[in-house]
């Protein structure tokens, strides 16, 4: 399960970065309608992943 969260987080990060590279509004910090959900998914998964790491005392 831990690896699933990390994998999901990394996939969301990749999707957001790929979109942001090709999207001028997202690249300038103003997410477009397609980019906003990608960013939100990335941010939510990042928060969940970091919370789990803190709860485990930094162990992965």
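Q: What amino acid sequence fits the structure above?
A:
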């Amino acid at each position: 399960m831990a690896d699933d969260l990390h994998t999901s987080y990394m996939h969301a990060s990749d999707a957001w970065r790929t979109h942001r590279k090709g999207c001028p509004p997202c690249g300038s910090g103003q997410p477009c309608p397609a980019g906003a959900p990608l960013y939100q998914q990335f941010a939510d998964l990042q928060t969940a992943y970091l919370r789990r790491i803190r709860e485990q005392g930094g162990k992965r």
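Q: And what stands out in the fold?
A: The chain has three helices and no strands.
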